C-alpha cells in the first residue's frame, strides 16, 4: 500500500473493488489462449468518494465486460443505486466485493445494446461525427510519420571530463542504422522539395476501425406481432458474418437467440443446430456471445483489432464527443459507402421524447455550483447540450435547404419563411422586417448574425445566472444562410383564438389572442419604440455591463444599458432572456466615416454594421487602466471607461470613448501587428486563415486585410529604401577606407624605410643594432582601425512577403465566395456544383480550355452565371476586393496566383464549403501530355473537357456554432501560469489538471485541448523537462490533424514546434521525418517562392544534424540546395548567399579539401565587402581566409613540385610520400566544421607552416643522405 493511498491520519482513501462476473461470458475469455480459463472476476481501485456509476462506467470500457450493457451491481443481497457513494456502502472496510446481476431487457435496452455492440465491432469508423451525413472527414496521418520512441535520458556519463564534453559537443550519439536512415530521409527531402503534390499530401489513409461483421441491423419483420410480444419478444435482428452466413435473431427479455426466420419466411422461434441440441437454442445475454458461437472470424478480427490499436495513440482513432472532425477541402473519390439498413431504421425506433434544448440548457445553468465537482458536472452537461443542439440544428437546416420541411408560413416568399422543428426555430438570414434597411439590408443582416453569435460565445464564458440567452447556430449552404435558435419559452405559443364576424362583410373570422410573452426591455418591433424595465436593467448592469464595458443611457426617454436594438423578454419560465445582441460592441466609427457615410454608392462598403470586435475593446480597456495606473479589480467594479453602444447608431448620440477605441485600432493595433511580423515576434503566416486568426486575437476585423497589406508594403518599401541607402553608405565607406588603407600603407612603408636606413647605418658603422629597431613597428592606437561588428541591415522579406501573399489570397478567395454566393442562392441546389466548376475553369483552367462552358444540361442555360466570361469574372473579383477590403488588387494578380493555383483553390473551398475530388487536375496541355505518357498503355485515358467538372465538386455546409470552453479549466490554467516561477511543481500540476478537465468536458478531440497541449510543450521545455515536452507536442499535432486538417496552419505550426523539440532531444531521424512532412506540405503550395522561411529554417537544422552525426558531405548537399533557394529568391550577391557559401567553404576546409573550400570562400569577400563594408569583421576575415587558402594552395603546389623532384631520385620514397600526401588531402576533419573563422585561419596557417617545416626537414635529410 503506497503512501498516496492514505490520508494524513493513516486511513486508506482508496478501495479495492472486486467484481464477480456472470458465468459463461465468451467475451471474458475471448482474448485468452485456449488453455486459459475465462475470467471470473475483475478488480479495480476506486476512491471512497466514487459513485456506483463510476464503476459502471469503467465496466463499460473494460474488455471482459464492455458487452454487458444491461446490468446492476449487487452488494450482498442489496442492489446498488447508481448515485450511491462507495464509502457509504462499505464503511471503514478496505475491500468491496460486488456481483454483476443481469437485468431483463426491454426494447429500449435492446436497441442500446445493439448500438453499443456496433460501435465495438467497428461499424462506425473513426472518421464519423455528427455532421458526417453532409461532409466527409479523413483519418489522421501522424502515425504514418514513423517516429521512434521519445528519448528519456540525454545526460552524458558522469565520468566524462569537462574537456571531453567540450571537444565532443557537436557529435551526436546515433547508431549507424539511424545515421543511414537519416541520410536517406534527407536525400528524399532534397529530391522532393520542388515536386510536392497536393494530391499526395491529402491522400487519405485507410480507416483504422473496420467492421468485424458484414452487417447488423433490424429485421424487416419488425414490429413484433402481438402474439409474440406476450412471449417476451422485443425486436428482430439480422446479422451477416464474415464467413458469409446470415442469421435472423430474436431479441427477448432474457437475451438473444437465433430463430428460424429466413428472408422469405417468418418463424421467430429458437433454431436448433445439428449436433448441438437444445443448448444451441438457448438465449445468450449478450449479442456478442451469440454471434461469437456462430462466427470463428468474429473473435479473431476483434483480437486483431485490439492488437492493432494497442500500438497506436488513442487520439488517432477515438471519436469526437462534443466537437466535430475537420472537413478537408480535398477528399478521396473512392470513398466506400457500404450498405447499412440501421442508419435509416434508427429514427423510427427513437425512444427519446421530443427534446427541448432550451429547457435542458437553462435547467443545467440553474444547478448548484458550490463545489468544484458540481461545476465540472455542470460544464460537461452544457458542452454536451450545445454540441447536440448544433448537430440537430444543422440537420434541420439542411432539410430546409433541400425542401423537406414545411414552413409555418408556406405562402410567404422564400426568405421570409420560418420553420419550427424539435423546438428549434429556423429562419433565413435576411433583412425581412427592414431593421437593417439603412445599414445595408441583407449584407448588414448577415454581419449581424455573425456578431450576435460572437456575443453568445462570450456569454458562455461568463456564466450568467439572472440573464439568459438562446442557443444559436448558423448554417450556410450553397449561398443561403439559416439561423437556428431555441425560441423564448412561450413566445411562439398561442393563447387561443377568438371568433368574430366582420360587420362590413358579415364573414366569420378567427383571430389569435395576444400573447402575454412580449418585449419588456429594449426595442419593441410592434410599437417601434425602446422600452425600459428596472428589473431587467438591474440584472444587465450586474452581469453584462461590466463584462462588455457598457454605459447606461437613455433612448426615447427610456433608460437602458444594452443597445437599443437588443430585446429583453420574460419567458413563460419566468427567466429573463436577451436577444439580438449584435450591437453590444461599439461601432467602428472611423471606418464608417471613411468608407460608408457620405461615400458614393459605387464605392461604398456593402453595409454599415461594421462593429469592433470584443477582443479589441478588451485590449483597449486593459491598456487604458494601465495607462491611468488603476487597479484592475477596482476599475472593473466601478465600470471605468465604459461606452455607449448606441453611439453613432442612433441619430444624435455620440461618445468620445467609441472614437477613442476606433482610433486605437487604426493608430496602435494595426501598425503594431505589422511591426510584430516585421520583427519576427509573430510567425510568418502559412495561409490566410493564419493571418485572420492573428487579426482576431488582436481584435481586428477581416475588412482590414487591405489596410494590413498596405501597411506591410509600406514597411517593406521603407526597409528597401533604407537598405539601398545603407549600401550607398557602405560604398562610400569602402572608398574612404581604401583611401585610408593607401595612406596607411604609405605611412608604414615610410616607417619601414626610415628604420631600415637606421639599421643600415649601424651595420655600416659596425655597431650593434639596438633592440628597439628589431621589434615590430607599432603605430599609435588612434591611427589604427579595428574591424567593426555592426549588425547587417536585413530586409524582413521572410516575414512581410508571406504576410502580403497570404492576405491577398484571403481577399481574393473571400471575393470569389461572395460572387459564388450571389449566383448560387437563386439556382437549384443541383446546379451549384456546375456553377463552381465553371467559375474555377474561368479562373484557373483557361490554360487548358480557353473557352469553358457551364455544365447545366439541356435547356438549362438560362441562368445568369452561364453568361459569365473570364474578363467579367476577374473584373467582379477586383470589384469585390475593393468594396469589401478597400484593396486594389495588383494588375498581375491572376497570373501570380494561378501559377501555383492550389493555395487559392484551397482557400475558396474553405470559404464557400467545397470538397474537391482528390485527383490530378490539368491546368495546361503540357500537364495533360505528361499524364498521358505516364499512363499505362493497357488502361484507357479519358481526356477531360475542362480542368474542373461538376462531378469533382461536393458542396458541404459551413456551420458556425456556439462554443463552450471550461471556466474551471481556465481558472486552473491561470493559477498554474501565475505560479510557474515561484512553485514549479504546483504550477505544472495545476496546468495538467486544467488540460485533463478540458478533455473531460470538451473531449480530447478539441482545438482548445490541442492549443493547451502545444502551450504545455513550451512550458515543459522551458523548465527542462524535454521528454514530457515532446510528448505534449506530439499530442497537439495529432489532435490538430483531426480537428483542423493535415495541411492547416495549426498542424504546420505544431509540427515546427515538434521538430525543434526532437532536435533538442538529439533524435536526428525523428527531426528529419517531421521536417519532411512540413516541407512536403508547404511546398505543395510553393510557399518557398513567397519567401516563407520554414523550408530554409528546416534545411539549416538538418545541416547542423548532418554535422552532428559526422556526415559533412550530406551537410554540403543540404547547403547547396539552400544556396539554390536563396539565389532563386534573392540573388548570388545577397548576404544570405554569402553566409551559406562561407559555411560550405568551412566544411570543405575541415575536410582538407582546400580547392573546393577556396572555390566557395572566394565569392564571400566581395559579398561581405558590398553588404557590410571593407572594415567589417566578416569582410576582413573573408579577405584573410582567401589569402590564407591561396597561400596554402601555393604551399601545396610547392610540396608537389618537391615530391616530383624527389621521385626522380628515389622512386620508392616518392610513392610513399604521395600516398601520405593523398591521405592528408582527403581525410575529413569534422571537428573543424563548426570552428570560427579565426580558428580555421589558425589551422590553415599552422598547416602551411608545419608543411613548410616538414619539407625543409626532408630536404635537409636528403642532402645528408647524398653526402
TrEMBL record:
Ranges of residues in domain Clu: 330-592
A Gene Ontology biological process term: intracellular distribution of mitochondria
Keywords: Cytoplasm
One GO CC term, this protein: cytoplasm
InterPro entries: CLU-central, CLU_dom, CLU_N, CLU_prot, GSKIP_dom_sf, TPR-like_helical_dom_sf
Compositional bias ranges of the Basic and acidic residues kind: 1215-1225
Domain of life: Eukaryota
Region described as Disordered: 1198-1267
CDD domains named in the record: CLU-central
PROSITE patterns assigned: CLU
A Pfam family of this chain: CLU
Basic residues bias locations: 1254-1267
GO molecular function, one term: mRNA binding
Keyword check for ATP-binding: no
Database matches in PANTHER family: CLUSTERED MITOCHONDRIA PROTEIN HOMOLOG, EUKARYOTIC TRANSLATION INITIATION FACTOR 3 SUBUNIT EIF-3
Protein name: Clu domain-containing protein
